[in-house]
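Subject: complex prediction, re-run

Hi both,

The earlier run crashed halfway through, so I resubmitted it with identical inputs.
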Amino acid sequence: MSTALSNSERQVIIIGSGPAGLTAALYTARANLKPLVIEGVEAGGQLMLTTMVENYPGFRAGVMGPDLMAEMRTQAEHFGAEIVQGDVSSVDLSERPFTITVDKTKYTAHALIIATGASAKWLDLGVDKKLSGRGVSTCATCDGFFFKGLPVAVVGGGDTAMEEAIYLSKLATKVTVIHRRDSLRASKVMQDKAFATPNISFLWNKEVVDIKDLDQGKVTSLVLRDTETGEKSELAVDGVFIGIGHVPNTTLFKGQLAMHDNGYLKTHDGARTSVPGVFAAGDVQDHVYRQAVTAAGSGCMAAIDAERFLSGTLHQPHAEAVKA
Amino acid sequence: MASEKVKTFTDANFGEEVKNGVVLVDFWATWCAPCRRIAPIVDQLAEEYNGKLTVAKVDIDENPMTPSKFMVRGIPTLLLFKNGDLKETVVGLETKDKLTQIINKHL
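This time it finished cleanly. Structure:
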């Protein structure tokens, strides 16, 4: 395998450039596999949208998400990983080497590591996407600025929603959290912080059924429905931030790789997917832990598995896992 | 690092600057992480469309009037003008390929 490959033919291609993809790049680069990383339109992953990360080991004073990603990137490049811009438009996993198409460029890879992550989930109302950038947002740190001195709403009851609400409480006059249940899913720490913030209030058992006003091209109010009584009400706001979780970026692999019902890739025996030679790491295959450090850890596993696959020394899988 | 071909527009000169030809404007801020992702693509577009397309940036912290006028409430937002008329609005991240298609429609 030491013969020179052409620039478009690679031992290892990694799709995605969050903690999973860049850790896989670091390890495969150090194994001399000259990995190519296709960074994707959301280069750097979800950490690029965060501020201070306080739970990544090794940084006792915390580290800014974008700074952490810049470091990971530089470290991977330092060992010889090549990172290219662009978004993968299609993959063909039916034969090896696999074909990966980026816009108009075709690459082939003898092993593929998928680290495409997950993206913020929208409400599925149609109108929410149409008013994106017009008052509907999935990123408080990006768009909170536009709502200084205005009332806003946050939809969701998990950590993401609480983080957004707390951030926005410093800018907006009033933050109303809308949650379809009567208790939060968020961690205790985040709940306590949110409850202690005077301008954050909560509307329980309510779901958003419409966002007004498409005709004016901006958000003026939300139409809510009580999940118990079905009663409708309206809440006047200038902005609405959606924090209802994530969806895995697996559209490219539909019909080619085994997935769970929720669209996350199935992995077994380390980072293996249902196709030999294709490995998955990070949030694209993890809807449970979803941490920067677990993503990085699984990126390392995928890299080691890919390296062993290429050298023919990948350990035998457990028979039961293969059946599943 | 930014391309020299990318201009900087302000509240004071915005109306005048978009009046002629095809102009792509990138609304951004120093604190906006996704803006940093789209910046290199905007730079490349400025280089590749040199002479055919004017590419410019507006820092929304320093120029609050223009984003408000065009109802920009999220960044990055790219606006495309042709002879002063707003033709396209692109909110959030897009691939270079997609942006090229959008620009080509108006050239």
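The mean pLDDT of chain B is 92.

- K.
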